[in-house]
Specification:
Blueprint lengths: L1 H18 L23 H19 L4 H18 L1
Helix pairs in contact: 2-3
């Protein structure tokens, strides 16, 4: 008798838990991203642009160093991806 009652309660709890559907949270609508052709004016982008100029100057002064060219390419990719 005890096992039947315990099983019935467990089955009831299981069915109740499975029947609940999570509610979707609805917040305010987000505005659409606006893409402009103007260059980004953030301080991070400006810092990366200055670092790119310095890296290009170093790479031009020492053309045989592959690491400098890799650094220039990496900075260019970051600026292209994040700042334009």
């Amino acid at each position: 008798m005890k096992h039947t009652a315990a099983r019935s309660i467990a089955l009831l709890l299981l069915l109740t838990a499975c029947a609940d559907e999570p509610q979707k949270l609805m917040g305010p609508a987000r505005p659409a991203m606006q893409v402009s052709s103007a260059p980004a004016r953030s301080t991070v982008c400006a810092a990366y642009a200055r670092a790119l100029e310095r890296a290009q100057a170093r790479a031009a002064a020492r053309p045989g160093v592959a690491g400098l060219l890799h650094h220039v390419n990496a900075l260019s990719a970051v600026i292209t991806d994040a700042c334009r």
